Automatic annotation (TrEMBL):
Gene Ontology MF: a single term: dimethylargininase activity
Swiss-Prot/TrEMBL keywords: Hydrolase
Assigned EC number: 3.5.3.18
Group of enzyme by EC: hydrolase
Organism in which the protein naturally occurs: Streptomyces narbonensis
The protein's name in its UniProt record: Dimethylargininase
Database matches in Gene3D superfamilies: L-arginine/glycine Amidinotransferase, Chain A
Domain of life of the organism encoding this protein: Bacteria
């Protein structure tokens, strides 16, 4: 089989430097507050990701880190932007709830009109649980985002929202278990065991040609990846994903975000996409 010809398209990302990153509480099984974090290393790893995006021709916008919010580096959780419309986040845990306002005020200060920005009614953790394909918005639930937020997103964006039930606490956000590889073609990779049987059947029906990740690669957070249509930036430890990605015509780019993994996040968690 010949690989599909791939092209990258320029993206705009919102990121937040891990200047105050630490693991002081535990709201997912990856977080162990007794394990020390190497802050300078976390910063260097994050800068490497930011620089990589820029070298690939993408725009990276920056959010100012708040010393009271150690998880703020995981910028994907702060909002969901589709078609220039911004659905703010409402966090499930009090420890992160103030991040939502920081994101909303960034959008208001950076040119998004008031009517395009929504303060959400229901709990949703932004792109942690919303993934955008050509035809649908895939939406995770079970650990963080409320199923009611799925309806709210559908109404706000005017796109069909497909609810997916997460069942394994290690994969508490959709973006830890599924990655959109090509948002012009409805192409994804995912780890089936992270989903309920019904949601697995939905995924198999919508994405019969999906790249299926092994448990090992999923456990390296290999699905917490970002694709620009050609380059797929992913945790370098997810070695089993590289060859299948190449066979499909993608260029995998391995990143080391080992310090941020201690917070339960990697490439995608650090990256919110601002879709025009
Ligand atoms: N410590 C953060 C939390 O548990 C990690 C968030 C990771 N972000 C993501 N998009 N999966 O909320």
């Amino acid at each position: 089989m010949r690989p599909t010809p791939r092209t990258s398209s320029p993206r705009r990302y919102l990121m937040c430097p891990p200047a105050h990153f630490s693991v002081t509480y535990s709201i997912n099984p990856w977080m162990d507050p007794t394990k020390p974090v190497d802050l300078p290393l976390a910063l260097a790893q994050w800068e490497d990701l930011r620089d990589r995006y820029r070298a690939l021709g993408h725009t990276v916008e920056l959010l100012t880190p708040d010393p009271a919010l150690p998880d703020m580096v995981f910028a994907a959780n702060g909002a969901t932007v589709v078609g220039g419309r911004v659905l703010g986040a409402r966090f499930a845990h009090a420890e992160r709830s103030d991040e939502a306002a920081a994101h909303l005020s960034w959008f208001r200060r950076n040119g998004w009109p008031e009517e395009a920005v929504r303060l959400p009614e229901h709990v949703n953790e932004g792109e942690g649980d919303f993934a955008v394909t050509a035809s649908w918005i895939l939406a995770g639930r079970g650990f963080r985002s409320s199923p009611l937020a799925h309806g709210e997103a559908q109404e706000f964006f005017g796109r069909p929202v497909i609810g997916l039930e997460l069942v394994d606490p290690r994969y508490y956000h959709l973006d830890t278990a599924l990655c959109v590889l090509d948002d012009a073609r409805d192409e994804v990779m995912y780890y089936p065991a992270a989903f309920s049987p019904g949601s697995r059947a939905v995924l198999a029906r919508l994405f019969p040609d999906a790249l299926i990740a092994t448990e090992e690669d999923a456990a390296a957070l290999g699905l917490n990846a970002v694709s620009d249509g050609l380059h797929v930036l992913l945790p370098q430890a997810a070695v089993g994903l590289f060859e299948p990605l190449r066979q499909r015509g993608f260029e995998p780019v391995g990143m080391d975000l080992g310090e941020l993994l201690k917070g339960g996040g990697s490439v995608k968690c650090c990256t919110q996409e601002l879709r025009p």
